[in-house]
Specification:
With about 280 residues, this protein is of the alpha/beta class. The protein is built from ten helices and eight strands.
């Protein structure tokens, strides 16, 4: 089963969605805190935007905030279950359109129509072929001054550890959750301490990296103008990347800026504390 088919099966069949996606915001103090303290400061220059494209909205965790920042919004997801939920959740918002795709296609999006493309905490689960396919199409979908903000995997930066992650993830779930602490100690004693600094449960695409994203942009005729490499929830390894891209010579064009942010986890702890003061 391909990575895309695995994601389709998981989000359609095996994941129960009891928390409607908000369960993934708990470590940040909740979805509201994650949006206003973590995401909005990173994208505030790009919104409001006339037309927003959201890739892989899930049950609309970020859509609920994006919808007030545009005149029209298009969202695509590989999961029929997710799209059905979003159509119901946002039924009263006639300017929003929701489509099921095959995991890579943006055929339903008109060319030269998108001002801002957004994806967070979704495309981290896909491999490089998916990112490449999306960027090739986004080169035609984005307006001349359009801009994109995509959260994706950087796990491929750690090839040795990625192999360990792959092997670990192939174990039956019962085996993964029942490994005794003594086994962890044994692994450390054998020189595999790196396992203690990488988020094994994050299910990141093992072939994707920040460097590959930049190369995919260049091959698509786009330009990556910033990258923030971050750890995720636990561990020191920078398993994720947040990349911003645009057309060369757009009003956003500039030399690339890069940041290795190993304090992202620490920031999540701060947002959890701030949420108690400023969020509902």
């Amino acid at each position: 089963m391909s990575n895309t088919e695995q994601n389709k099966h998981r989000w359609n069949k095996t994941y129960d969605w009891q928390g409607t996606g908000d369960e993934w915001s708990v470590d940040f103090g909740g979805t509201e805190a994650l949006w206003f303290f973590i995401l909005y400061p990173r994208i505030h220059r790009f919104i409001p935007a006339q037309t927003i494209l959201e890739i892989a909205p899930g049950f609309g965790r970020w859509t609920q905030f994006l919808k007030s920042q545009c005149d029209s919004l298009i969202a695509v997801d590989v999961s029929q279950k997710c799209i059905d939920f979003c159509r119901s959740r946002f039924a009263s918002d006639s300017y929003m359109q929701f489509y099921v795709n095959d995991g890579t296609s943006l055929a339903m999006v008109p060319e030269n129509s998108i001002d801002f493309v957004f994806s967070f905490d979704s495309l981290v689960h896909v491999e490089k072929e998916v990112i490449q396919a999306y960027l090739l199409q986004l080169a035609d979908k984005l307006k001349p001054d359009g801009i994109g903000f995509i959260h994706h995997s950087n796990l491929g930066t750690y090839p040795g550890r990625a192999r360990l992650v792959t092997q670990f993830n192939k174990l039956p779930e019962s085996s993964r959750t029942s490994i005794p602490k003594s086994r962890t100690v044994k692994l450390a004693a054998n020189g595999v301490e790196a396992l203690l600094s990488i988020n094994l449960q994050a299910n990141r695409g093992s072939s994707m990296t920040g460097k590959l994203f930049r190369e995919c942009c260049q091959n698509a005729g786009l330009k990556c103008i910033s990258q923030e490499l971050v750890n995720w929830v636990k561990g020191k390894c920078l398993v994720d990347a947040i990349s911003v891209f645009t057309h060369p010579d757009s009003r956003w064009d500039r030399p690339i800026s890069q940041l290795n942010n190993s304090k992202f986890v620490a920031a999540s702890r701060l947002t959890s504390r701030l949420a108690k003061l400023y969020c509902g």
